[in-house]
Fold these 3 entries.
Entry 1:
Amino acid sequence: MLFERWRAPIYRWLIPFTAGIILYNTLEPTRIRAAAMLIGSLILAYLFSRGKSTRTWRWQPLVGLCLFLAVTCSGVLFTSLRDLRQQPSWIGNNRTENTDWLIKIREEATPTRSGWRLTADLQAYQDSTQISSIDGGIHLYTKQRAWALTAKPGDRFWISLPLQRIQNKPNASFDYARYCRQKKITHQSYVQSNTPIHQIPRSKHNLSNRLHRVQSEVRNQIYRALPDSSRAGLATALLIGWKGGLDPERKQHYTRTGTIHIIAISGLHVSLVFEILWRLLFPLLFLRGGALLRQLIALSCIWIFCFIAGAEASVLRAGIMFTAIALGRWMERPVSGMQALGLSMLILLIADPDWLFDPGFQLSHAAVAGILLLHPVLVNVIRPQNRLLKSTWESACMTLAATACTLPLTSYYFHQFPWLFLPANLIAVPLSSLALLGLFFLIPLSIFQLPSEPTTWIITCILDGMNAWVEQLDRIPGAVYSW
């Protein structure tokens, strides 16, 4: 019964393709070798499938094995083609001495021990004769607070400085260089106070600039409505995933109690957006073609929300799954949860194979897989008749199912296990859902300058109650087992 849920055709492609990505990152074979293995496995599959009809059944396992190897080799070849280091325009294959670089800011500045760090993408460089295109991601470290805080995602600058390859420190246990490389970042530099920096005027039609302006406006509205910076930082992280204003101590409380997933944008946020839009768009059903229009508007708004929230792996996973399930219902060809999960993994890995090694990607898909596979089994163990007990038991089973599948990953990445994750989530998850619902109504009220004091007061009470519950559990001795 449990393994029948895995019988989705998408996994026949996903599993060998994923194996190819892992194989490339482990052995790093050349493109020629990967292409030769792909062609050889396809030829063998064709030859085995051409056997006599009376003996075809004998060759079917070999045909399947060859096709499995073919998809695996295609994963190896595809990953090598997407590997930035294999491109002639990569910064590592070009000069890195002091020259003029055209950079595009990728992420907002994050504080470090001695200043600020900016992540940017290289677009071009200028030498004495011409301007040439170039690719690669870089970390820029600076103590210039004014420039670091005014540089926003999508902004472009001409900057003159030398670049150095990111390398691990001697005897370091963590492979920081590999971690950065999987995020398409391979070089770094330090921006001095006298470093020449010239900003290029922003383009009105730049999509990343527009998305960042929307995100900044939402953030500003939250901070105006919630004057307390600690509450506003938590509310902003809940709504759009921006963690720049999150209190580090409070973040540690959520991590130690196993409720940090609340702050990460995930399926909970997308499902609330979809549910609100679905109910608000109900009048469209009275129009001709209104059902299709309702579906398209809801899905479009979901994807706008996904990109405003930062387009991380967890939120993109939820967006793809919702889209696949909704389109399947509209086409009267239902898509199961496991099929949608596999489809989201395959699409994201095709978009960027390095996402396979992203902790957010792994934890998000593992949690959903646990819910889809284990939750129906756990729910049937006990069947309470009381509605409140039944709802509490279903929530507990969902938390247990998600934790069971993410436990190996959380143990590997965080080296700790929160013993009180179940009571923490039973209270924190419903409260976070109510806070999100209130924030969805608070933003339009603030934008149109309508009375929002009651909504603000309710959100404040919910956030304070959630924080108090999490902090109280974290203070219990022995609540977390660390190693």
Note: The radius of gyration is 25 Å.
Entry 2:
Amino acid sequence: MDLKDKLEPININEEFVKQCVRKTISDLGGCDCDICFANACALALNELHPKYVTSQKGALLTEITSTKVTNHADITVEATKAVMKVMKNPLH
């Protein structure tokens, strides 16, 4: 097996949360420093069930699309709550 074909467990919700937190910080005018971003991501991810898959890059697209559609509302809600919490109590 070539290294590029290596299978690894991936929490595909993590990438969606990162995207949603970035957008929510921008929309709400929150601090976009690395600390606030990471704290909001951690808070949101702690409230969501992980969605782990093992896949090679090419085979992952179908799973990602399906998960994004299914979990979009939950991710948006948790990301918004997390960003608002961090905005009220930034740790920097």
Note: The chain has one domain: 6-88.
Entry 3:
Amino acid sequence: MKYAYCLVRLFLIVLFFDSTFAMVTDGEFDKYVHAGERESVDGLFSTVHSSGILDPRFFEHEHLLDFRLKNILESKGISLDIVFTGDFVTNHSGGLKRAGSGIDTSISYLSNTDLIAEFDTEKAGFWKGGTFHGHFFNHHGANPSEDYIGDLQGSDNFESEKGTKLYEFWYEHSFDLYGTDLSVLIGQHDLNSEFNISEYGLLFLHSSFGFNNEISNNIPVSNFPVAALGFRIKWEPTENLYFMAEISDGDPGKNNGGFDWKLDSKEGFVNFYELGYHFGDQEESRTMPGTYKLGWWYHTAEFDDVRDRDENENPIRHSDNYGLYFIADQMLIPGEGKKGLGAFFQIGGVPSDRNEVDLYVGGGIHYQGIIPAREDDILGLAVAHASISEDLRDIEKMDSHETAVELTYRAQIFPWLAIQPGVQTIFNPGADPDLDNAVVSIVRFQINF
């Protein structure tokens, strides 16, 4: 209950400051502001649409704090976004919840606050085609998969170690290459912000629908909560076709604070390549939009064999690791605007001799606007199946797989506030035969300031 109280208190504090901005706008502070100062105050804090909470347009804003200063900064090339995400996670049964085990199965809470800033060099009056990007986040709260559930895929995609860090910092430059689009990016970059993404899969709270588990579970890779130094190039020869490649640090480590950069040839490098084809208008479902992606990756570090040992009983070392994946998003039954029924599919495979998970298959359905009066709400049902390497099962007492089924509904209460309850059934958590199937619920609150 103390976490719920803190969340409510934070919300009320934000509303208080927002109301204060509105009072400045509406003239309540006139008696405290000299006439000569009035214009400058209005220029900074008056809103395009009044942000007073009694004004019904307040609930139509894209951001909770919708004031003119933000628009002024954007016109100068500076954009700032603050997003707060709070999750309440409960393991109702199974997993690490055993009678008399002493495991605390009460509601656990975790939250993430992201500050994202971008600087457009062309809008700022400098050179054309340049973008600087910075992303800080603060994370605190429980670790439900580690402490309460025991699953290997990760029930909550925001689970992380506590702390505040610089997550991403990169520069991207875009070119016109003989009538085609070419861009290069260099800096601390999250691979999964561009590679191995299903747009429909992003709805779900489970981690594997964001980054295939045969990748995230087996190799150190640039992905939340730790991004790595990298160089990415993307070429779009047509509006419908793209190819991109990235090379990045093979082991970003913990990177505490986001400034602990270390490049070591012993840790290797990871190379990602992705070819994608998309068609239709994503804003208009009646065009039957679809996206298909084929990706492959190669890691240059050494990896232990999961089963075989040498004469000294040390694991045999493999000089590399690699994998292949395919992702599809397809509208199936269109509706008005973005509304309609879509589906996604993920599959990826890796060598079974050096990886715990050798095959991942995921997919599901995504229905936007299933309730006619709520066209921005989304209902989703999806399955994530991680197959355990048979080589590993030869020597370890493990089940053949861990499979998660998630049902979730994202309700867009206001443009700046979403509430998303979800329930997951996790079969064979951790592929541990001693653990019963787990039933987990998550309620997510997300506020765009």
Note: The first strand starts at residue 78 and ends at 95.
